[in-house]
From TrEMBL, chain A:
BP terms from Gene Ontology: quaternary ammonium group transport
Annotated InterPro entries: AAA+_ATPase, ABC_SmlMolc_Importer, ABC_transporter-like_ATP-bd, ABC_transporter-like_CS, Mo/tungstate-bd_C_term_dom, P-loop_NTPase, Transp-assoc_OB_typ2
GO cellular component: ATP-binding cassette (ABC) transporter complex
Pfam families: ABC_tran, TOBE_2
Lineage, top ranks: Bacteria, Pseudomonadati, Pseudomonadota, Alphaproteobacteria, Rhodobacterales
Source organism per UniProt: Litoreibacter meonggei
The keyword Transport appears for this protein: yes
GO molecular function: ATP binding; ATP hydrolysis activity; transmembrane transporter activity
Name of the molecule in the record: Spermidine/putrescine transport system ATP-binding protein
Automatic annotation (TrEMBL), chain B:
SUPFAM superfamilies documented for this protein: MetI-like
GO CC terms, sorted: plasma membrane
Main location: membrane
Location of the ABC transmembrane type-1 domain: 89-296
Pfam family, one: BPD_transp_1
Keyword terms of this UniProt record: Cell membrane, Membrane, Transmembrane, Transmembrane helix, Transport
InterPro entries: MetI-like (IPR000515), MetI-like_sf (IPR035906)
Record family assignment: Belongs to the binding-protein-dependent transport system permease family. CysTW subfamily.
Source organism, top-level taxon: Bacteria
Protein name: Spermidine/putrescine transport system permease protein
GO biological process, one term: transmembrane transport
UniProtKB/TrEMBL annotation, chain C:
GO cellular component term of the entry, any: plasma membrane
Organism from which the protein derives: Litoreibacter meonggei
CDD domains, A to Z: TM_PBP2
Main location (coarse class): membrane
Topology in the lipid bilayer: Multi-pass membrane protein
Domain ABC transmembrane type-1: 66-267
Pfam families: BPD_transp_1 (PF00528)
Protein name: Spermidine/putrescine transport system permease protein
Length: 370, 309, 420
């Protein structure tokens, strides 16, 4: 199998009439990477995938696969294979015929095709199921057949369009691991589209977060979670408490923000925005629920918030505590379940603190809508 | 994210071979089987009926005489009207409308009954029974009615047996057979579109309305009929167009004199061999029926897209 | 609950009236096929007879008509199904702004009166011939004035719209991702069409073909203009019916009705069987126990009716070989003669009474009218005799009426129908 073919998107803009689906996207994906595009539905991530697979030509910019410009090359000529959101298994063909379809259209003999299909069926642990129809398989089995069908074409790049979205939670988590393993085994470049941050963060080497046709940030999953570069990324990936305000002072990469309702708070400036933030700017500060903890009485007031408990929800591995701060500011805190019955009582006034390195500040901007 | 593509993308999306084949077939159909034939008929209707030698000659000029003939007959001074043909024309249009209305009333209850009682064996049997006459030849169906309406037909025999009449009634000469035959011929084209839309009506809507105390009349007026409107208009359009354009039923069930406008067209073509005159009459028929249908569709706010559902 | 009962009664009466209107004429017509009376009627009933079937099968015009109807039907199916399929595929892709205009154009032929379509086809191809300078006797002139060619085009112009409607309904459920998946896996557009879309459309193509064939087979309004010097079954029938009616047309109608019922029942039975199998698969119904009836018939009234009907047809064809209405006919004739004789006697008596007064001599009674005895007795017996079908040798009887479906089936075998 081939491995390690890089994909580069250079200044890609895609328009449908007056509507711009993708604006000036620049992405370079290393060969053999598991790369994800993460964003809410309608953000243009599927459009990018279709441009890579060749179903549409970008209005501007170039798609390079392995350094070759793909302009004018149709989907059936590109070294890519796409796994569709609904899998698009051919319902009237048997499983083995589905898997070996790419060989059929290339004119391979039935015996050859059957042999290759059986190998792939063994690889996806569906040996002996080749004569079934897709409708006779379970959701997870269909998933694996779709992967085998795509791999049978020996693509340099495998494109996956939210392939796990139709599965139930357990299976989805299982398939994440399996996909990652398959990718490591075959070693080819995977480009994965998802709106599920869990999928993106667990599987990917790198993630691009998209909003309304624009790529906000490309980085490792870890960095995207810890150092979001825009308010959108901060609020879309994981949960976050947002505090709006104005920058009061900056020292090095730390800033004090005078928040609208919770007083002056200290935090880190997110790395991508260091230098972009000036005193007096509108800013947003984000603190993740798990970064908050109950404060000792003598805590530094610049990293302390007081609030009243409104509700507490038990989530299994943790408790979610919902609090109301000054001026009606809603705050969420997450406390790991370490065997305690509950954390707090409704109406109780709590003092919460956080570590300034766990809070990030950036210029104010658009948040991800719920 | 499926975007509708514009024409220039057509070949990219279908490939050159398939794209050409698709466009080729559709163009052949639309251009050579529909548009050009209609246009050449229109052109023909404005020409004189000349002997072959004079076609293309100096006498081959455009004229309105074929249309004038419908209004004034062969009277070139335009003093008298062509009452015979005009009467036939008006009768055809009005009778086709009446047949359509008759079919709406006759079919609506059955369409409702079939559409709302789902899946029982009895209903399936009824549907099978409906399909059978649907596939029997139009001519044979007219023939069946002629057997019944004839002088010594079943109906006259029955009426005389019951002493309702002493002499056989001439149903054919009195046009009763024709109207019964027209109503009979296209009744299923009214029933099936109605049945299809009523079947798609959620029963819960009716039950909810009943629950709120609506009367049956009210339920039909406010819920069922508005929902069934596209089906009713679609069926009515088909029945009206087919009735107005019917030829077999008038030929077989009509009396000795021509009753139906299509018969005049037929006579111009096949008996008088005056194609130009026949084409003009056909254009009049086509234009007037289309205007009526479009008007009705406009009044009832139904789109072309609902036709044929 | 008396009002509910009232509704029930009203509904029952309404259904009865509706179905009598719909089916009654067909039943009456079918019955007249078996009455030996030379005018199609059920009353007075003369004799039960198969002779009209015999007349029908010996009618060369009808046999020719059926032959050309089938030829034209096949041509129309091929042309209209491919045009309808192409039109429906284009409809799914056409630019949204053009969509409704395009749809109006491809649906319009359904609404154009058949007479108009026939005329316009005739006029256009005549003009086209003139345009190409085709002169009488040239190939092009012959083609553009050929009844079969023109009829196929004329019929296809609107039957393609019906086919298109069938395809649009099916295409709505087609997942275009499947085509893209095929392309993505390296298929060409033609391969994707042949291997993905076409198999998906196959059931719709089958039903559109049946629909197109039937619509073509029974079309009259368009055909009567375009057929020129050929004949189809409908134009032959129309001519016969206009010139004078006789029960051999009833016998044709009867055959068509029986075939239609067969097809409808077979379709329904197959549907039920499929539904049941599906239900069994989903565990919603139990496997049918093999009792006295074969499994496909259990709980499937349509299948039972189908077998019963087949049985009745076999019995009918069987008795037709032996049954002869001769005795009955003689009886009827005798009864008629007796009635006439009685009438004559009455007249004689009246005249005698009159004459007696005048004491005049008696004249001879007028001779009783006689009707010619039909030549053939067992109708079906002759149908299957080779000499009756045609003067060709290969028209020898192929199927003895063993199975119900085939009883009348071979009558429509195109090989049996010879042209001159």
């Amino acid at each position: 199998m081939s491995s390690g073919v890089a994909v580069d998107l250079e200044n890609i803009t895609i328009r449908f009439g007056d509507f711009t689906a993708v604006r000036d996207a620049n992405v370079s994906i290393n060969g053999g990477d598991f790369f994800s595009f993460l964003g809410p539905s309608g953000c243009g991530k599927t459009t990018i995938l279709r441009a890579v697979s060749g179903f549409l030509e970008p209005s501007e910019g170039r798609v390079l696969i392995g350094g070759n410009d793909m302009a004018g090359i149709g989907p059936n000529k590109r070294p890519t294979a796409l796994i569709f959101q609904n899998l698009a298994l051919f319902p009237l063909m048997k499983v083995w015929e589905n898997i070996s379809f790419s060989m059929e259209v290339a004119g391979a003999s039935a015996a050859e095709r059957r042999k290759r299909a059986d190998e792939l069926l063994d690889m996806i642990a569906l040996g002996g199921q080749g004569d079934k129809l897709p409708s006779e398989l379970s959701g997870g089995q269909k998933q694996r057949v779709a992967i085998a069908r795509a791999l049978c074409a020996n693509p340099d790049v495998l494109l996956l369009d939210e392939p796990l979205s139709a599965l139930d939670l357990k299976l989805r988590q299982h398939m994440r691991t399996e996909l990652r393993e398959i990718q490591k085994r075959v070693g080819i470049t995977f480009i994965y589209i998802t709106h599920d941050q869990g999928e993106a963060l667990t599987m990917s080497d790198n993630v691009a977060v998209m909003k309304a046709g624009v790529i906000d940030q490309i980085d490792t999953g870890h960095n995207i979670y810890d150092d979001p570069s825009t308010p959108f990324v901060a609020s879309f990936v994981g949960e976050n408490n947002v505090f709006r305000g104005k920058v009061k002072s900056i020292s090095g990469n730390e800033a004090v923000v005078t928040t609208n309702r919770s007083g002056d708070l200290l935090s880190r400036i997110t790395p991508a925005q260091v230098g972009n933030l000036k005193v007096g700017d509108d800013a947003m500060m984000f603190i993740r629920p798990e970064a908050l903890e109950l404060a000792p009485t003598d805590a530094d007031s610049k990293t302390t918030i007081t609030a009243n408990v409104i509700n507490e929800e038990f989530e299994g591995n943790s408790f979610s505590v919902f609090l109301e701060g000054d001026g009606g500011k809603m705050i969420k805190m997450s406390v790991p379940n370490l065997g305690q019955d509950h954390i707090s009582a409704r109406g109780e006034n709590l003092s919460l603190r956080y570590d300034a390195s766990n809070a990030v500040t950036m210029p104010a901007g658009e948040l991800a809508s719920e | 994210m499926k975007k509708k593509m514009i024409f220039s993308d057509f070949f990219k999306n279908n490939g050159v071979v398939m794209g050409t084949l698709l466009i080729g077939l559709v163009s052949f159909w639309l251009i050579f089987l529909i548009i050009l034939p209609q246009l050449s008929m229109l052109d023909y209707s404005f020409r004189f009926n000349l002997p072959p030698a004079e076609v293309g000659g100096p006498k081959d000029v455009y004229t309105l005489s074929n249309y004038e003939h419908l209004i004034y007959g062969s009277d070139s001074t335009h003093q008298t009207y062509n009452t015979v043909d005009l009467k036939v024309f008006v009768r055809t249009i009005i009778a086709a409308m009446l047949v359509t209305i008759f079919n709406i009333f006759l079919c609506y209850p059955l369409a409702y009954f079939l559409g709302q009682s789902k899946g029982s064996g009895f209903v399936r049997l009824l549907v099978v029974l409906l399909i059978i006459p649907y596939w029997i030849n139009e001519i044979l169906r007219a023939f069946a009615l002629r057997i019944i309406f004839g002088d010594s037909g079943l109906l006259n025999e029955a009426l005389m047996f019951l002493h309702l009449t002493s002499e056989p009634i001439d149903f054919i000469r009195q046009d009763i057979a024709l109207y019964a035959g027209l109503g009979y011929a296209y009744i299923l084209l009214m029933l099936f579109p109605m049945y299809n839309v009523i079947e798609s009506l959620d029963r819960n809507q009716i039950e909810a309305a009943r629950d709120m105390g609506a009367s049956w009349v009210h339920i039909h007026r406010r819920i069922v009929i508005p929902h069934a409107k596209p089906g009713i208009v679609s069926g009515a359009t088909m029945v009206f167009m087919l009735s107005a354009g019917a030829l077999a039923a008038p030929q077989i069930l009509g009396g000795p004199s021509s009753l139906w406008f299509t018969q005049l067209v037929y006579q111009w073509f096949n008996d008088s061999l005056n194609w130009q005159q026949g084409a003009a009459y056909a254009i009049v028929l086509l234009a007037s029926t289309i205007i009526i249908v479009l008007t009705v569709m406009k009044i009832f706010k139904v789109n072309m897209g609902d036709i044929g559902k | 609950m008396s009002s509910a009962n009232l509704i029930r009664v009203a509904l029952g009466a309404y259904l009865l009236i509706f179905f009598s209107y719909l089916l009654g004429p067909l039943v009456v017509m079918s019955l007249t096929a078996f009455n030996s009376s030379s005018f199609p009627t059920v009353s007075p009933w003369a004799c039960f007879s198969y002779e009209w079937f015999d007349v029908l099968f010996n009618d060369k015009h009808i046999r020719d008509g059926i032959y050309y109807s089938i030829v034209i039907g096949i041509g129309t199916v091929i042309l209209s199904v491919s045009m309808g399929l192409a039109a429906s595929i284009v409809l799914t892709q056409v630019w949204p702004k053009l969509r409704s205009t395009y749809y109006t154009m491809i649906i319009a032929p359904i609404l154009i009166p058949g007479v108009v379509l026939g005329i316009s086809t005739l006029v256009f191809w005549d003009r086209a011939g003139a345009f190409f300078g085709a002169t009488d006797g040239s190939f092009l002139y012959g083609l553009f004035h050929n009844g079969i060619f023109l009829t196929i085009l004329g019929q296809s112009s609107f039957i393609a719209s019906y086919a298109m409607l069938v395809f649009v309904a099916r295409l709505q459920r087609f997942d275009t991702d499947l085509t893209e998946a095929a392309l993505d896996l390296g298929a060409t557009h033609t391969q994707a069409f042949r291997k993905i879309l076409l198999p998906f459309m196959r059931p719709a193509i089958a039903s559109a073909s049946v629909l197109a064939f039937l619509a073509s087979f029974e079309n009259y309004n368009t055909t009567t203009f375009t057929i020129i010097d050929y004949k189809t079954l409908t134009t032959v029938l129309a001519q016969k019916v206009r010139l004078g009616i006789n029960p051999s047309i009833s016998s044709l109608a009867f055959i068509i009705i029986v075939l239609t019922i067969f097809a409808a029942l077979a379709f329904e039975a197959a549907n039920r069987n499929k539904e049941h199998k599906l239900a069994v698969k989903k565990g919603k119904a139990s496997e049918r126990k093999s009792g006295i009836l074969p499994s496909f018939m259990t709980g499937n009234p349509a299948a039972i009716l189908l077998v019963l009907l087949a049985f009745v047809v076999i019995v009918m064809v069987g008795t037709a070989q032996k049954y002869s209405p001769e005795t009955c006919k003689i009886e009827v004739r005798e009864a008629k003669q007796i009635a006439i004789q009685q009438r004559i006697e009455q007249l004689k008596e009246a005249r005698r009474l009159k004459d007696e007064a005048k004491a005049a001599t008696q004249s001879d009674a007028p001779a009783a009218p006689t009707t010619a005895a039909p030549k053939n007795s067992g109708a079906f017996g002759n149908v299957f005799a080779p000499t009756n079908l045609s003067d060709e040798d290969d028209a020898a009887p192929k199927a003895a009426p063993k199975d119900g479906n085939g009883a009348f089936g071979n009558v429509f075998d195109p090989n049996n129908l010879n042209s001159e």
